[in-house]
Queue: 2 jobs
Job 1
Amino acid sequence: MSSFPISRLRRLRRTDALRALVRETALGLDRLVMPLFVCPGEGVVNPVEGLPAIAQLSVDELVREAGELQALGVRTVLLFGIPEEKDEHGSGAWEDDGIVQRALRALRAETPGLTLITDVCLCEYTSHGHCGVLRDGEVANDETIELLARAAASHVEAGADAVAPSDMMDGRVGAIRAVLPDTPIVSYAAKYASAFYGPFREVAESAPAFGDRRGYQMDPANVREALRECALDLEEGADVLMVKPALPYLDVVRAARERFDCPVWAYNVSGEYAMVKAAAAAGHLDERAAALESLTAIRRAGAEVVVTYWTKEFARWL
Ligand code: PBG
């Protein structure tokens, strides 16, 4: 390779057209997934302070929003439910007429062609806000994974195209795979006990009533452990590995991408989005530029798909 003055890397940066020709990472709507939150009632659009431009939506409003997304070219949504009532076991998660199940049936009928992925977890449905059932003050793993499998099966019965377990119990992918041999499982394989979930817990009403999630979610200090989580999930039958959060964990995305041949996705979580929104609202940065740079960086690190609250705005920016 020649060096300066023969080599001048600025030559390929001279125009928009040249820069586009040599761009290594593309960002398209087919690679973004929009999270949506469904709640009880009718005509409910309940915005959340911590998560600008995102709202809890009743089923009718969800259907309207999904139609708008589809018209903008969005192809995939990730559904979260906020139930009428919570109990110790999170039974709202698997009820046949639970909030997500009703939403799925409505979306199936009204927005055919939209790919529907459901988040599978108990934290939105338990009165204590933990991701599983409690025994002696601890989340009981083996009992919980049976309930998660039940929830996942009821989502598929109601029309989900794929399920995404986000609870971080051991063996949950295997438990779900046992009852759903044909359903794609997008596993939140490397999900960290992160401070960046704050705004999500506001919108999903899922903050733990006591303690924290460090007994099941991963320690932010670890990356080798993330690869073990990924390997186990693949053995249990996961189709897609997801890393979460995204920006503070790009090394984990890269490591998973290099080690495994399956699709690797990343979740650009609520706190990552809210930080940019807040800085932009205060006039400190350009939201659109910062968002596009963030999403490009996540893709460049090795994530094929990014779950992001910017999906709808991205569709408008195109
Ligand atoms: C449920 C779940 C969480 C997120 C996705 N699924 C929160 C948590 O683990 O407390 C976070 C998503 C975000 O912050 O955008 N377990």
Job 2
Amino acid sequence: MSAAREHFGSRLGFILAAAGSAVGIGNLVAFPVAATKSGGGAFLLVYALFVILICLPVMMAELALGRHTDKDPVGAYRTLSGGSKLWQIPGWLALITPFMIAVFYLVVTVWVLGYLVETLGGNLDRLATEAYFNQFINSPSVFVYLIALMLLINGILALGVKDGIERAAKTLMPMLFAILIGLVAFVLTKENAILGVQYYLIPDFSKLTPDVLSSAMAQAFFSLSLGMGILITYGSYMESHQSIPGSAKVVALTDTMVAFTAGLLILPTIFHFNPQIDPTELSDSSAGMIFLFLPKIFLALQDSIGYVGASAFAAVFFFLVLVAAITSLVSIIEVPVATLRDERGMDRRKAIYTVGAVQVVLAAFCAVSFGMVQWFTEFVTLAGANKSFFDLVEIIFYDTILPLNGLLVCLFVIYRWKKANFDQELQDGAPGFAGSFSQRYVNFALGTFIPVFLLLIFINTVALKFFGISFF
Ligand code: TRP
């Protein structure tokens, strides 16, 4: 490649882009629900500990790998593999994983876009009916939304790192923060809202079972975009005088704060609608909450703010989720794009067309696996249950391979690239980090208990999802 590597224009640009990647649908919906069901404040506490003690070191490892090699994940692992073919496998996994996660995440984002458009068209009452979701996801309009979304995201990517990814993050992220805070401020003034806050925050340590701990850990890991090759890629766009530990901390803090704040929106909204609700009955899945449960709650707001007010509230919420999803998709689709450019020497445009063409087809396969096409709907049988193509992609790449990727990053950085080289890279831009307690902790943790933790999660997921065996 002749052209110089693209870089983020500023530290803030990098931080917003990485935070945009990390903040997604899960932060806004899955996290608040999981926290409420699993011990409130106690869950928040262990989640924060996982972020600091386990996720931050992995985040630094990925960023350092990318920045040191100035390459996409495949290239990064190859450069430092010392010629070993085996050590190049994590690179390929860090290419295929984001590629496939993007595929199923695209489909969910398409539904969010559809719900936003429907709400703006005055149809909130329809969205709030039980049958609508099924009808909507099986309607041909999903393909129109899919094309529109692909054009938007790839349009951002086509403008490059600084003018596309960074500029989009600088516009969209402040907007996301403002909308989120605005919605929270509005909903907290509503009757019974405070009950929701109580449910969300009051700690119940008895709920912290091994199962809860393992899913809190998995959630923290996924939420921060770890194991997806994204931070390796974004690290390669970082300038070397910028502090990796410092930036990683800000990104992790932002992601966690957004997830926390979303709880101050979701729970009060639900309790305003029904102060007697038993939150343990809420759906675990973000999709179940966003498309089946929340529309009913939004519609019920019409009693206090009228139908137009309720529709406006719902539309702003769907827009918020859409923005969060778009910045995540931008980051994840950039990984295969960067790989095609670095490894195959393609120009940005051609790489985008290539990735986009395959993804649109696979996303369409996912979209038709809710009844439109029988073969994709009943694609495989896992642990005795029918799984669609969509389910399979999610289970393999989101649930299973992510912790494996995280594990491989830790082992690679500490035992193949070696501690001393990793340290050297971290010190670049963070001179105070050398010899600090944090540095010793990061080195020790990455080489010992973090990979063990991730291995346990990996084994547990494989046993549960593929064989129906539950250890906890
Ligand atoms: N935090 C995201 C979520 O809550 C998960 C995620 C992180 C993600 N990075 C991503 C999803 C990139 C899609 C693409 O949903």
